[in-house]
Amino acid sequence: MIYIFFVVIGIPASIPLIVQNAPLLLVLVFIVAITNVAVSLLAGKLVKADLEEIILASNANIGRPTTAAAFAIAKGWKNLIGPILVVGTVGYIIGNYIGTTLNLWFATLM
User: Fold this and answer.
1) Residue 54 · residue 40 · CB < 8 Å
2) Are 60 and 91 in contact (CB under 8 A)?
3) For the whole model, what pTM was predicted?
4) How buried is residue 99: exposed, middle or buried, by Cβ count under 10 Å (0-12/13-18/19+)?
5) Helix (H, G, I), strand (E, B) or coil at 76
6) Is pLDDT of 98 > 80?
């Protein structure tokens, strides 16, 4: 069922249309993704996490917990499916509060 979800989400996407209309957005997304992977690998090595855990955490950051769970299923890392869903969801919760707080703070600076 998760693969059906990904198909439905991805159907309207058009890479040529994105390149034509917003090439700088594509570059920005690429830079953010590469930076995310680099920071995740560095932080993961500092806390001595397994490479599988680091990769899944980076995947959950970029593509949401459902894509990380699908990746874990595809790679056969069955013991990491539950934890990555929990960690990704907790990341949403924390990120929403931080984002809202920063938005309110930046709004007061204007």
Assistant:
1) yes
2) yes
3) 0.72
4) exposed
5) coil
6) yes
